[in-house]
């Protein structure tokens, strides 16, 4: 079972993608951004393989406006070698890739212009994966679309338009239940008519279930039956509800205890799990370590180095408990570690705790900082102590110092990013 995340990497500034507006999309600008994004994707693949994250969804915005008729940019010819190299790296590393067009890619619209744009977008996604040389288990995920006043006709229109797609698109396209219009039973109906694999989305199902009641595992198995051997292992989407937000909102992080209950219920079913969550790769690493039978204390110590100043900021009590937890070098207390991390992150940082974390981080710079920089930090710290400014301003100044005085330990930390 592979566990992965979608599109963006959290906690790693150097792995940030770039974009531009349509009015600024000159060929020069598109070349600049595409080359940057392809380099970043290459590094993301390295990061994923290194961390055992073998399922990853590539951002649709990697090549800006690639499916727009009004933008002429021969990315296929310009970056054929780069795409082939990316695909070879993924295949060699056992990394399964996918893409997921956005909400405006609607194949069942009654408006021919909308359908035409949807087809162009699907062509872009498919061509990207094809040029990478990826196998047919690298998929393009699509929602069914709208209802437009008549659900029966909308389903039929989806099937008709699907059948008009090129074989290259059809071999990669898979469909997913959504949280408003098309529940899993609707999607299975379409899938069985058109012979399309189905991705089961766990949170969408909770929000928008069909009338027929079945266990989640039964629905997952039914969706899995729509996949043929060449489609690869069936995929599902897993997320948790962000408490206090509207139904269907993805949580900030995956609660490991809740995930483990789900994982145990599906552990005998052949699936790959795509996490849809705000903290992306951080939750992927958490879930991979949580389900691993071969994890080590070293992996937790690496994670602790990333989290420690953020935890200190939220709760010195949890900070000390985690330190004590990791003293036994023969243990692997992954579930207790993440329970403490999650508990701490739920706490509102007290002013004194925030100041304590500021001073710990400042310790990395105080020997190298110039006198004006020292004066500036103390002024900012005093203003925060007096309630004249917020903590983000002090943190931004410390981050600015990190740019001037790079420190490998802090550069890997999540302190400035979550």
Q: Topology of this structure?
A:
Layout lengths: L2 E4 L20 H24 L4 E4 L16 H4 L1 H13 L3 E4 L12 H20 L8 E4 L7 H13 L3 H6 E4 L7 H11 L3 E4 H6 L8 H9 L10 E4 L17 H11 L5 E4 L5 H11 L5 H18 L1 H10 L8 H13 L4 H12 L8 H15 L5 H14 L3 H4 L7
Parallel strand pairs: 1-2, 1-8, 2-3, 4-5, 5-6, 6-7, 7-8
CATH topology of the largest domain: TIM Barrel
Spans of at least 5 consecutive residues whose pLDDT stays below 50 are none
Query: In one word, what is the shape?
Result: globular
**For the largest beta sheet, what order do the strands appear in spatially?**
3-2-1-8-7-6-5-4
Q: Pairing-aware structural class of the strands and helices?
A: alpha/beta
Write down the Rg: 24 Å
Tell me the distance between the termini.
Answer: 28 Å
Q: Give the count of structural domains.
A: 2
CATH classification class of the largest domain: Alpha Beta
Mind telling me which CATH architecture of the largest domain this is? Alpha-Beta Barrel
* Number of helical stretches of at least 4 residues: 18
Helical fraction: 40-55%
